[in-house]
Write a structure and sequence with these properties.
Pfam families: GerE (PF00196), Response_reg (PF00072). This protein is an alpha/beta fold. The chain has helices at 15-27, 39-49, 67-78, 93-100, 118-129, 137-144, 157-167, 172-179, 183-196, 207-217; strands spanning 6-11, 30-36, 53-56, 83-88, 107-111, 133-135.
């Protein structure tokens, strides 16, 4: 599949890292239409440039706590058509849950230290821009930590494993390859998850997204 040309807004307060990412993304066929070093600059850039996706660091000036992800939540509310890829050294589970509260489509959350290749990052950008999901396994684990007993607890270990890979944005074929099982076996596990989560098939609904949201939301109950 040929990736489309992406318009990107990049929010990163480190000038050295920001300039390096602009160069890397440009070499991979992405157009960084604006950069931002603060949350207000990010909001203004997204409003002014209407990018396909915004890359957001969590901790930005002035307090370097959660300004970036707060801005990401605001972008999600103001411009839901813009994909958001949080790219950070930190996991903020509470704010990540808020970011995902209205749907996992078009959302990514990757940890800088775990992205080994530029191609992985660019693939995640395209996936998010196209309405997919890209969640680091550690982010999913943090979101699930301390969850109350609920529907997730009804899953078998294999069903939970399949659902976690769904949360990372993998297709059934990709999950089958990772788990070294048949695609048909994965389909059965996915169907079991839908049944246990009481997600009935409708023409309009994306049950994969709803299953992932159920999985992520239980830590907030």
């Amino acid at each position: 599949m040929i990736n489309r040309h992406l318009r990107v807004v990049l929010a990163e307060d480190s000038v050295v890292l920001r300039d390096g990412m602009v160069e890397l993304l440009g070499a991979r066929g992405c157009e960084v239409v604006a950069t931002a070093g603060t949350a207000p600059e990010l909001l203004a850039a997204v409003s002014g440039h209407q990018p396909h996706v915004a890359v957001v660091d969590i901790r930005m000036p002035p307090t370097h706590t959660d300004e970036g992800i707060r801005a990401a939540v605001e972008i999600r509310e103001r411009a839901p058509q813009v994909g958001i890829l949080v790219f950070s050294q930190h996991i903020e589970a509470a704010w990540a849950s808020r970011l995902l509260a209205d749907g996992a489509a078009g959302i990514g959350y990757l940890l800088k230290e775990r992205v080994a290749r530029t191609s992985e990052f660019v693939d995640a950008l395209h996936r998010v821009a196209d309405g997919g999901t890209a969640l680091d396994p550690e982010v999913v684990d943090q979101l699930m930590r301390g969850a109350q007993r609920g529907r997730v607890d009804t899953l078998t270990p294999r069903e939970r494993e399949v659902l976690q890979l769904m949360a990372q944005g993998h297709s059934n074929r990709s999950i089958a390859a990772l788990l070294v099982v048949s695609e048909r076996a994965v389909e059965k596990h996915v169907a079991a998850v839908f049944t246990k989560f009481d997600l009935r098939a409708t023409e309009a609904d994306n049950r994969r997204v709803k299953a992932v949201l159920t999985y992520l939301a239980e830590q907030r109950s």
